[in-house]
Structures are given as structure tokens and as C-alpha cells.
Amino acid sequence: MLLAGKWVNASQTFGVYDPQDNRLIAHVPLSTKEDMKKAIDEAEKAFKKNKDWPTHERINVLKKAVEYMKENQELYAQTIATEGSKTITEARGEVKRAMQTLEISAEEARRLKGETINFDQNEGSENRVGYYYRFPIGVIGAITPFNDPLNLVAHKVGPAIAVGNAIVVKPASVTPLSALLLADAFEAAGLPEGLLSVITGSGRELGETLVTHPAIKMVSFTGGLDAGKTVAEQAGIKHIGMELGSNSPAIVLNDCDLDEAVTSSVGGAFGAVGQNCIGVQRIYVQNDVYEDFTKKMVMQTKALKVGDKLLEETDVGPLITEKEAMRVEKWVKEAVEEGAELLTGGSRDGAFYEPTILANVPDQATIIKEEIFGPVVLVFPVDSLEEAVEKSNDVNYGLQAGIFTKNLDHAFYAIHNLHCGGVMVNDTSDYRIDEMPFGGVKNSGLGREGVKFSIESMTEPKVVSIKL
């Protein structure tokens, strides 16, 4: 692991396994609280040592890191696909996005500016001029999940380095290798020693130390709601950024391009095995097209190829662990026992779970209210757009939503009435570019990611007033 700029081992290790066949692929250090404390202490020293690190050097490091990743692109993709759930095609897409995230970080480093302030708007301050500028806050503590093991790390490291912060990353224990490869890129790019650490190990062992250490000035967390609540309780008075997941809806109206809606919904529901915080979980379809939509969606879903992640023809791989596949299986069975109709799927083989569509899911079912985080989607007929929006909002999450319609009035009704962080018109919730503000309301999190918006949360404004 990378501890304060040095590659170190530990007295104990833990295994990283391919979820497809439970094959051991690596041993990584099992860090202790003392390792984490050392990484944070050294990060604080490195930040102070490099407090005057010039913008052009930060930009250069980020660009060189991208160059290193381009030269080793297939290694990154193979690592993502082997340690995680993504197919090789999805993994290659993630590598491209991670490189773009760092490229945007370099661009935003150049644009980190303040504004002049008109002090003479206040009577008696006519002889004052001034401005504000933004400065880095110090050491960032980052906790990242398994489902995007490279790009979601890049979304924390890139903005932190762009403004001159130090950062300590605790990656998901099941997918630490991609984060370590990102650290490789920054070391090759000449990042000053100590500004980045990637500490591997147990979240239960390391998390509280990272979150509560007084040198940590911001905690950037992506993960589950329960863990997020714990982080928020432990963090105290410091910056917090959280992306906690969702239960994302799509609305399909009778005036839309139905084939486009079907294809987008299949991709949005089953991409990355449904282990995607903006993946489609609930689809509300207007009555006139409900039967046609469900028939077409079932047909396309059955055509998906489930199997070996490393084969380019594979559409859907395994979930991250067999335990997660068993949880999904349990939720689906409970819903069917309570009256839901299984339109396709519903079978498990180890960590693999068939892409599954449920209809007539009763309101009391767990699967309708909580985040599935698996290859399952629920479809519902509705009478109107207003009913669809009301039902879309009837969960404790609000990350993103989608609506399919050719009517601008309908689109803007959804835009203004869906309670979420983003509305995708003629697309599903499963759409994101790495520059846009990304985050949600309710239990979907606090603050926004997206490079520019992360940079704002990782800096503080300082006002300067000069009396002439």
C-alpha cells in the first residue's frame, strides 16, 4: 500500500478475490489504526511543506498521471474487471472516465479563482477595495466503494490534488487494487511525497480513525446509508461530502419513443449488474403503452448474455459477492410471495443473479422502498404523469430520475416536481458526465461531487479588504 509516499507491506494481509469464481487474485496489507494515524500525520506534514505548491505544477502532475494511465490502459481495465463486478467492456469505459476526471481536475485547477468585492456598496466603505480567493483546507479523508473502484477514487483524489490538498484514501476492501494502481500513476507523475496515501484494510478497523482524526478537515464518503450515518455522527465539525445511493425512477409516457425508452431502461437497470447508485430501479409506464413496453423490455432483457466478465460478448457479470446475490434473491422471493409477478429472471448461481423484472410489486415489499443494488427492476402502470411523479417521490432517496416524453410541458413538469438531484429527459437516471454536479437529496447524500463542485467543498474562501 502507499503510505505517505512509500510503498509498504504489513505484518498481516488479506485476500482479494474474483467474485466470479472466488479465485484468490492478490494479497494486500491489512492495515492497523497506527498505520492510518501515521498516514494522516504524514499527510498533514506534506500539506504544510507544500503549501506554496504552484498551480502549474499541480496541473502537470495531473496530466502526467493521465499519460501514465493511457500507457497502461488495459492493465487498469483488466484489474477493474477481475477484482470487481464489471465486464471488461464496462471496465474499459470506467478507465476512460477516470482519465477524463483527472483531465477535468487539471483544467479546474487553472480556473480556481475568486472575485472582487464592491465594498463601496456599504456607506462608509468607499475607501475600501478587496476580493476573496479560495485556499485548500488541508487533509482530505476519502472512503470509496467497490462499484466504481477507479473512477470514484479519481473523483476524490483529482480535485484534492488540483487545489493542493493532501488526501488519504481508504478503498473498499473487496476492490483495493484499482485504487493502488491510481496511486501508481500519481507516483509516476511526480506527486510530492506524502500528499497521497492509499491505506488498505478493514473499514471497521480504520474508518473511525480516519473520520475523527483532528488533522482531517473534510471527509468525502461514497457508500451505503447506514455507514454514512455513522460517518456523519463521528466526523464532528468538518466538511462532509456524501453520496449514499438511491432508488431511482424512470417515467415512460405514451408520447415517447418507446423503443428508445426500452433500450435505455434495460441498460440503466442492468449495467454494472445493477450495482450502480444511479441505476434504474422503478419504472412508471403510462397505461396506454404499459403492455407494449413490458413485452419489449422482457424480450431485450432475456437477450442479455450473463457470464464471464472478461469475454467481450458478456453483458452481465456476477455481483460483488455471493452474499450480495443471496440478499437480492431473498428480496425478490419475498416480493413474489407478497404478490409480485416475476416477468423474467429470478434465478441465482453463486454470485450470478439473472437480470430480473418484477411487476405488481406491493407497496409493503422491501424491494420497492430500499436500494436493491442488484440486477432487478420493477415496472408499474400509471394513469398520468402526476401519478408517476408522486410515486417516484415516495421513497427516502432522491439521487437522479429519468423521463421519456416528446412533450416539453411534460418534461418541465417532471423537472420541477421530481424531488432529486438530477432529471434526465429522454434518458434514464443512469446518465452522468464527470463534470456535472452529482449528488442527491433526502437519504441520497450531502453536497455534490463532479470536479468543480468537489473543489469548492475542498477549499475555503478567504476575504481580503484593503482600506486605502
UniProtKB/TrEMBL annotation:
<protein>
    <recommendedName>
        <fullName>3-sulfolactaldehyde dehydrogenase</fullName>
        <ecNumber>1.2.1.97</ecNumber>
    </recommendedName>
</protein>
<dbReference type="InterPro" id="IPR016161">
    <property type="entry name" value="Ald_DH/histidinol_DH"/>
</dbReference>
<dbReference type="InterPro" id="IPR051020">
    <property type="entry name" value="ALDH-related_metabolic_enz"/>
</dbReference>
<dbReference type="InterPro" id="IPR016162">
    <property type="entry name" value="Ald_DH_N"/>
</dbReference>
<dbReference type="InterPro" id="IPR016163">
    <property type="entry name" value="Ald_DH_C"/>
</dbReference>
<comment type="similarity">
    <text>Belongs to the aldehyde dehydrogenase family.</text>
</comment>
<comment type="function">
    <text>Part of the sulfo-TAL (or sulfo-SFT) pathway, a D-sulfoquinovose degradation pathway that produces sulfolactate (SL). Catalyzes the oxidation of 3-sulfolactaldehyde (SLA) to sulfolactate (SL).</text>
</comment>
<keyword id="KW-0560">Oxidoreductase</keyword>
<dbReference type="InterPro" id="IPR015590">
    <property type="entry name" value="Aldehyde_DH_dom"/>
</dbReference>
<dbReference type="GO" id="GO:0008911">
    <property type="term" value="F:lactaldehyde dehydrogenase (NAD+) activity"/>
</dbReference>
<dbReference type="Pfam" id="PF00171">
    <property type="entry name" value="Aldedh"/>
</dbReference>
<feature type="domain" description="Aldehyde dehydrogenase">
    <location>
        <begin position="7"/>
        <end position="464"/>
    </location>
</feature>
